[in-house]
Amino acid sequence: MLEIKNLNKKYRNNDKYSVKNLNLTVPSGEIFGFLGMNGAGKSTTIKCLTGIIPFESGQILIDGRDIKKEPIEAKKNIGYVPDDHAVYDNLTGREYVVFMGNIYGVDKDTMEKRIEKFEHGFSMTRFMDKQIRSYSHGMKQKICIMGALIHNPHLWVLDEPLTGLDPQSIDEIKEYMFSHKKAGNTVFFSTHNIDMAEKLCDRVGIMHNGRLLEVLDVKNFIASGQSLEEHFLKMTAR
Quick check: is 98 in a domain? Predict the structure, then answer.
């Protein structure tokens, strides 16, 4: 479970807060979509909750572990997929995933079983032993996801995970999101793709100018006859 309490983040030499007084709880067994235009504060929030950047005030708990006070224990429960494919291009896909598994202390037998499952599920069997530098955009995204999930984290965090992917890759990643949720885990991802959020998410939060404007139950909102896209555009036009 993810808990964010009164989070505030301001970058150096910037008078404006990138994230202001953010409060949010995302329980286990949920796919949560973080919606917002570019610059809304989505990526900054994600970098704070994954411990990549510090924040001025507030508290972030991952399964009850404070990301500031217990960073190692908190990060053990996070699988993070950035928006820039931060991988080691000279490694093969298999070497990269094994490297990530070793960081998280995954035992050899478990790691081999999970890699075998991933490479089949992501149609990557033919490419696992090739250098990542030869991969397409979609293949790099898949190998990042394998590295993020190799330790079976409770919280899977993705920053704009479906941008620029082909339909097959999108479908494969969606299936892993549903599977992760079904296992009682949490999926938290940022996006500006409203249609995809409608199909994937249990709830969505709308960010604008560093503030969380509201959180919506997607199923109930759609059942009310309202358009999520129209509502999002109206809320972010302020």
Answer: no
Domain count, the chain: 1
Question: Hey, how many other C-beta atoms are within 10 angstroms of the C-beta on 48?
Answer: 25
Tell me the C-alpha distance between 202 and 216, whole Å. Answer: 9
Decide: residue 215, CB within 10 A, 0-12 exposed, 13-18 middle, 19+ buried: middle
pLDDT for 91 equals: 96
pTM comes to 0.92
Q: What is the rounded average pLDDT of the residues 140-159?
A: 95
Q: Which residues contact 52 (CB under 8 A, 6 or more apart)?
A: none
Domain range enclosing 208: 1-77+154-165+192-238
Quote the pLDDT of residue 84.
79
Is residue 85's pLDDT more than 80? no
Average pLDDT over all residues of the chain: 93
Is residue 216 assigned to a domain?
A: yes
Tell me how far apart the terminal alpha carbons of the chain are, to the nearest angstrom.
Answer: 31
- Which distant-in-sequence residues (6+ apart) come within 8 Å of 97 by Cβ? 111, 115, 118, 128, 143, 146, 147, 150
Nearest CA among 178, 205, 235 for reference residue 4: 205
CATH of the domain at 65: 3.40.50.300
Tokens 């217990």 -> residue: 70
